[in-house]
Amino acid sequence: MSIFPWKKQCAEAEDHVHYVARSPKGIICGWLTARSAELFGQYYIYLNEISTRRIKDELYGGIGKKLHDALLKDAQEAGVDFIYLYPLNPSVAEIYKTWGYKTERPEIIQLFYILNAEPNREMLDSVMPPNPRTFMAMAYSIASKPTPDPELIALISRVRRRMIQKPDLIRELSSAIDMVKGVKYMEEEEGIPEDDRIPLAEKRAIIAEVLNKVKVGGRRTYKRIRKRRTRKRPFGRV
After folding, report:
1. 215 lies in a domain?
2. 157 and 136 in contact (C-beta within 8 Å)?
3. Run of H or E residues at 184
4. Number of domains in the chain
5. Do the beta carbons of residue 37 and residue 46 sit within 8 Å?
6. Which residues pair with residue 36 across a beta bridge?
7. Is the dihedral of CA 197, 201, 205, 206 positive or negative?
8. What is the pTM of this model?
9. Single residue among 97, 126, 155 that ends a domain in this structure
10. Cis link prior to 199 (omega < 30° from 0)?
11. CB 68 within 8 A of CB 29
């Protein structure tokens, strides 16, 4: 099995690196893509993807680790400070941790492989997840401008507290907001007449669809609670 950098027919910029695993018979068994960057006074690599066959056998077993080892060797020689990645799910994260990756902050999903220097504060701050309240504020802005939508505003108010406690829904809301803003930007850039643009109500419906996934139970009043706890005593008993 041979692992080597792959530059032929790669259209990406110079900061992108590719590695390919090829069997003695010339069969491509897997590949790795990554990107180098210099920001916040540090030189690092972001690991985009490692792709191999799901079915492991004598030929394909351990290909992902071998691809990563090749990247690691070249990164060390190049003086890279660290490599980091975004694991797709907790199971994948556990695999990368066995390779030497670690969590730098509990709130950060990205994992880091330290070579010459730990990621500094500015770097870690840049990958911190946004405050959920920020997305709720953005949703409120879409609901209230240019003309208020009382129904959507009331929905935001009703689910706000529970919404900020649900990371999965916050990510969905973030995507919905990006979609609404993206459509608006495209319409403005292409000069689409106002009458031909997607109605504001339809754009707001994208936001409402996410918010409606929050289940909000009825609020019990003090009187109702007290009534349930009160028992009538039979006559003749003290």
Report:
1. yes
2. no
3. helix 167-189
4. 2
5. yes
6. 45
7. positive
8. 0.59
9. 126
10. no
11. no
What is the helix, strand, coil percentage profile of the chain, to 5? 45, 20, 40
CB 136 within 8 A of CB 160: yes
Q: Which domain holds residue 174?
A: 132-222
Residue 14 has pLDDT above 70, yes or no: no
Identify whether residues 68 and 143 lie together within a single domain: no
171 occurs within a structural domain? yes
Cα atoms found within 13 Å of the Cα of residue 166, Cβ hemisphere only:
19
Backbone conformation region of residue 84, classed left if phi is above 0, alpha if psi is from -120 to 50, else beta: beta
Closest CA to 179 of 211, 213, 151, 202: 202
Asked which of 53-67, 92-106, 164-178, 194-208 is least confident by mean pLDDT, the reply is: 53-67
What's the pLDDT score for residue 48? Answer: 92
List the end-to-end C-alpha distance of the chain, in Å, as a whole number: 89
Among 74, 225, 204, residue whose Cα is nearest residue 150: 204
